[in-house]
Amino acid sequence: MTRVCLIGEDGSNLQYELLSRETAREALATYDLERPFENSLALRTVSIGAAVSLLNDLNWYLTRFVDAALVQEPSISDDEWLSRSLATELRNGAIEPAETAEFCKIYGLERVDAGLEADEEEALDRGPENESGTVDAADAADSDSNDAARSGAVEPTYRLVEPLYVRRTDGDLPEYDLRDVEDTLVVRLTEAEYSP
Protein backbone atom coordinates (compact mmCIF):
# COMPACT_ATOMS: atom_id res chain seq x y z
CA MET A 1 0.00 0.00 0.00
CA THR A 2 1.19 3.50 -0.84
CA ARG A 3 1.21 5.97 2.05
CA VAL A 4 0.42 9.67 1.90
CA CYS A 5 1.47 12.08 4.64
CA LEU A 6 0.50 15.74 4.80
CA ILE A 7 2.57 18.03 7.02
CA GLY A 8 0.71 21.16 8.11
CA GLU A 9 2.10 24.65 7.89
CA ASP A 10 3.27 26.34 11.08
CA GLY A 11 0.41 28.15 12.75
CA SER A 12 -2.33 25.95 11.26
CA ASN A 13 -4.12 22.95 12.73
CA LEU A 14 -4.08 20.64 9.71
CA GLN A 15 -6.55 18.10 11.03
CA TYR A 16 -9.08 20.83 11.83
CA GLU A 17 -8.55 22.66 8.53
CA LEU A 18 -9.14 19.53 6.44
CA LEU A 19 -11.86 17.79 8.41
CA SER A 20 -13.94 20.91 9.06
CA ARG A 21 -14.41 21.50 5.33
CA GLU A 22 -16.98 19.34 3.56
CA THR A 23 -15.14 18.73 0.29
CA ALA A 24 -11.86 17.71 1.97
CA ARG A 25 -13.71 15.65 4.60
CA GLU A 26 -15.59 13.75 1.86
CA ALA A 27 -12.36 13.11 -0.08
CA LEU A 28 -10.76 11.67 3.09
CA ALA A 29 -13.83 9.83 4.42
CA THR A 30 -12.94 6.42 2.95
CA TYR A 31 -9.45 6.35 4.48
CA ASP A 32 -8.21 5.42 7.94
CA LEU A 33 -6.46 8.56 9.09
CA GLU A 34 -3.33 8.57 11.25
CA ARG A 35 -1.20 11.29 12.80
CA PRO A 36 2.44 10.12 12.60
CA PHE A 37 3.95 13.54 13.35
CA GLU A 38 2.87 16.74 15.02
CA ASN A 39 0.36 18.63 12.84
CA SER A 40 0.19 15.90 10.21
CA LEU A 41 -2.34 13.58 8.65
CA ALA A 42 -1.48 10.26 6.98
CA LEU A 43 -3.36 7.53 5.17
CA ARG A 44 -2.85 4.52 2.90
CA THR A 45 -3.95 4.24 -0.73
CA VAL A 46 -3.87 1.34 -3.17
CA SER A 47 -1.22 2.77 -5.52
CA ILE A 48 0.98 5.73 -6.35
CA GLY A 49 -1.62 6.73 -8.94
CA ALA A 50 -4.36 6.82 -6.31
CA ALA A 51 -2.07 8.82 -3.98
CA VAL A 52 -1.34 11.45 -6.64
CA SER A 53 -5.03 11.62 -7.60
CA LEU A 54 -6.02 12.22 -3.98
CA LEU A 55 -3.41 14.97 -3.65
CA ASN A 56 -4.76 16.56 -6.83
CA ASP A 57 -8.31 16.41 -5.41
CA LEU A 58 -7.09 18.15 -2.24
CA ASN A 59 -4.92 20.71 -4.06
CA TRP A 60 -6.95 23.76 -2.95
CA TYR A 61 -6.39 22.80 0.70
CA LEU A 62 -2.77 21.76 0.18
CA THR A 63 -1.81 25.18 -1.15
CA ARG A 64 -3.34 26.87 1.89
CA PHE A 65 -2.62 24.61 4.86
CA VAL A 66 0.08 22.08 3.93
CA ASP A 67 3.82 22.63 4.10
CA ALA A 68 4.73 19.28 2.51
CA ALA A 69 2.81 16.45 0.83
CA LEU A 70 4.77 13.19 0.95
CA VAL A 71 4.21 9.81 -0.70
CA GLN A 72 5.82 6.52 0.32
CA GLU A 73 5.79 3.78 -2.29
CA PRO A 74 7.05 0.37 -1.02
CA SER A 75 8.29 -0.64 -4.47
CA ILE A 76 10.67 2.35 -4.35
CA SER A 77 11.66 2.35 -0.64
CA ASP A 78 10.24 1.13 2.65
CA ASP A 79 11.69 3.98 4.68
CA GLU A 80 12.21 6.93 2.34
CA TRP A 81 9.43 9.21 1.11
CA LEU A 82 8.86 10.95 -2.22
CA SER A 83 7.89 14.57 -2.69
CA ARG A 84 4.54 15.14 -4.39
CA SER A 85 6.31 16.35 -7.54
CA LEU A 86 8.52 13.27 -7.71
CA ALA A 87 5.55 10.95 -7.10
CA THR A 88 3.70 12.69 -9.93
CA GLU A 89 6.66 12.24 -12.30
CA LEU A 90 6.81 8.54 -11.39
CA ARG A 91 3.10 8.09 -11.95
CA ASN A 92 3.35 9.83 -15.32
CA GLY A 93 6.33 7.70 -16.39
CA ALA A 94 8.59 10.76 -16.72
CA ILE A 95 11.21 9.17 -14.45
CA GLU A 96 12.20 5.59 -13.62
CA PRO A 97 12.17 4.33 -10.00
CA ALA A 98 15.95 3.76 -10.08
CA GLU A 99 16.46 7.44 -10.92
CA THR A 100 14.72 8.81 -7.82
CA ALA A 101 17.43 8.50 -5.17
CA GLU A 102 19.97 11.21 -6.01
CA PHE A 103 18.35 14.40 -4.68
CA CYS A 104 17.01 14.36 -1.12
CA LYS A 105 15.86 16.45 1.77
CA ILE A 106 16.50 15.10 5.28
CA TYR A 107 14.27 16.31 8.10
CA GLY A 108 15.30 16.00 11.72
CA LEU A 109 12.69 14.33 13.95
CA GLU A 110 12.42 16.13 17.26
CA ARG A 111 10.37 14.77 20.14
CA VAL A 112 7.46 16.97 21.19
CA ASP A 113 6.86 17.36 24.90
CA ALA A 114 4.18 15.02 26.18
CA GLY A 115 0.91 16.59 27.20
CA LEU A 116 -2.08 17.80 25.31
CA GLU A 117 -2.67 21.30 24.05
CA ALA A 118 -5.69 23.07 25.55
CA ASP A 119 -7.81 22.69 22.40
CA GLU A 120 -6.91 18.99 22.14
CA GLU A 121 -7.98 18.46 25.77
CA GLU A 122 -11.26 20.21 25.06
CA ALA A 123 -11.82 18.02 21.98
CA LEU A 124 -11.07 14.89 24.02
CA ASP A 125 -13.51 15.95 26.74
CA ARG A 126 -16.18 16.76 24.16
CA GLY A 127 -15.75 13.45 22.33
CA PRO A 128 -16.54 12.76 18.69
CA GLU A 129 -19.92 14.54 18.63
CA ASN A 130 -20.16 17.71 16.58
CA GLU A 131 -22.30 20.77 17.36
CA SER A 132 -25.46 19.09 16.05
CA GLY A 133 -24.94 16.13 18.36
CA THR A 134 -24.10 13.67 15.60
CA VAL A 135 -20.87 11.73 15.29
CA ASP A 136 -18.49 12.59 12.45
CA ALA A 137 -16.80 9.53 10.93
CA ALA A 138 -13.36 11.14 11.10
CA ASP A 139 -13.86 12.11 14.75
CA ALA A 140 -15.15 8.65 15.60
CA ALA A 141 -12.02 7.14 14.07
CA ASP A 142 -10.00 9.30 16.44
CA SER A 143 -11.96 8.25 19.52
CA ASP A 144 -9.71 5.23 20.18
CA SER A 145 -6.63 7.42 20.13
CA ASN A 146 -8.49 9.93 22.32
CA ASP A 147 -9.12 7.18 24.88
CA ALA A 148 -5.45 6.23 24.73
CA ALA A 149 -4.49 9.87 25.27
CA ARG A 150 -6.71 10.10 28.35
CA SER A 151 -5.20 6.93 29.81
CA GLY A 152 -1.66 8.19 29.23
CA ALA A 153 -0.86 5.37 26.76
CA VAL A 154 0.19 7.75 23.99
CA GLU A 155 3.32 7.07 21.98
CA PRO A 156 5.80 9.93 21.73
CA THR A 157 4.99 12.55 19.13
CA TYR A 158 7.64 13.91 16.80
CA ARG A 159 7.83 17.05 14.69
CA LEU A 160 9.79 17.52 11.49
CA VAL A 161 12.46 20.18 11.87
CA GLU A 162 15.00 22.04 9.75
CA PRO A 163 15.42 20.14 6.47
CA LEU A 164 18.91 19.54 5.09
CA TYR A 165 19.19 19.32 1.30
CA VAL A 166 21.67 16.64 0.26
CA ARG A 167 22.81 14.68 -2.76
CA ARG A 168 23.35 10.93 -2.58
CA THR A 169 26.84 9.91 -3.72
CA ASP A 170 27.93 6.30 -4.18
CA GLY A 171 24.63 5.17 -2.66
CA ASP A 172 25.20 7.02 0.64
CA LEU A 173 23.51 10.06 2.14
CA PRO A 174 25.44 12.58 4.26
CA GLU A 175 24.61 12.63 7.97
CA TYR A 176 22.03 15.11 9.25
CA ASP A 177 24.07 17.65 11.24
CA LEU A 178 21.91 20.75 11.65
CA ARG A 179 20.97 19.88 15.25
CA ASP A 180 20.84 16.94 17.64
CA VAL A 181 17.76 14.86 16.83
CA GLU A 182 16.55 11.38 17.77
CA ASP A 183 15.94 10.30 14.18
CA THR A 184 15.57 11.57 10.63
CA LEU A 185 13.13 11.30 7.75
CA VAL A 186 14.41 11.21 4.16
CA VAL A 187 12.37 12.68 1.31
CA ARG A 188 13.46 12.12 -2.29
CA LEU A 189 13.09 15.18 -4.53
CA THR A 190 13.08 16.13 -8.16
CA GLU A 191 16.19 17.95 -9.37
CA ALA A 192 14.14 21.15 -9.69
CA GLU A 193 13.07 20.93 -6.03
CA TYR A 194 16.65 20.32 -4.96
CA SER A 195 18.00 23.39 -6.76
CA PRO A 196 15.10 25.84 -7.24
Quick tags:
196 residues, alpha+beta, 2 domains, globular, 7 strands
Helix-strand category = alpha+beta
Order of helices and strands: EHHEHHEEHEHHEEH
Compute the number of strand runs. Answer: 7
Mean pLDDT: 83
Count the domains.
Answer: 2
- Structure annotation, total helices: 8
Distance between the termini: 31 Å
Helix/strand layout:
Blueprint: E1 2-8, H1 14-19, H2 22-28, E2 40-45, H3 48-57, H4 59-65, E3 66-72, E4 80-83, H5 84-91, E5 103-112, H6 118-126, H7 137-151, E6 157-167, E7 183-188, H8 191-194
Parallel strand pairs: 4-7
Antiparallel strand pairs: 1-2, 1-3, 3-4, 5-6, 5-7
Helix pairs in contact: 3-5
Task: Briefly characterize the structure.
It contains 8 helices and 7 strands; from the N terminus they run βααβααββαβααββα.
Describe it.
This protein has 2 domains: 2-112 and 156-194, no CATH class; 118-151, no CATH class. The chain contains 8 helices and 7 strands. The protein has helices at 14-19, 22-28, 48-57, 59-65, 84-91, 118-126, 137-151, 191-194, and strands spanning 2-8, 40-45, 66-72, 80-83, 103-112, 157-167, 183-188. Mean pLDDT is 83; it is low at 116-153.
